[in-house]
Specification:
108 residues, alpha+beta, 1 helix, globular, binds zinc ion
Length: 108
């Protein structure tokens, strides 16, 4: 599995620091959504943030609906969630996914 990516919004406390959050209305290049693994095409909106956890860190890029799905998942799970790139379904929280939809890796 890849690196765990985490976000908590239920208490406002963070195990990993997140910063440089931004909403971009129109992507200037093709990106891949970290939540669902699908492409974010040029001209489409996306949301991103940077995170740091000890010596680890990186940038997370997501479709706006995937960002919302991640926040719903955080509420469903009662706090911190630990997930890997591309293992989720676009726009769906864990509670909304069918088991068969959980792919466990990048999808093409
Ligand atoms: Zn996505």
């Amino acid at each position: 599995m890849g690196q765990g990516l985490r976000l908590c919004n239920t208490k406002g406390a963070a195990v990993s620091d997140t910063f440089h959050e931004q909403s971009v209305k129109s992507s200037r290049k093709t990106r891949r959504c970290d939540w669902c693994g699908e492409l974010i095409q040029i001209g489409q909106p996306y949301e991103s943030y940077r995170w740091r956890d000890g010596s680890d860190g990186g940038t997370v890029v997501m479709h706006p609906e995937c960002r919302q799905a991640m926040e719903r998942t955080s509420r469903e799970e009662g706090g911190w969630i630990d997930w890997d790139r591309g293992e989720n379904v676009r726009g769906k929280s864990w509670g909304e996914m069918d088991v068969a939809e959980k792919t466990g890796g990048w999808r093409q």
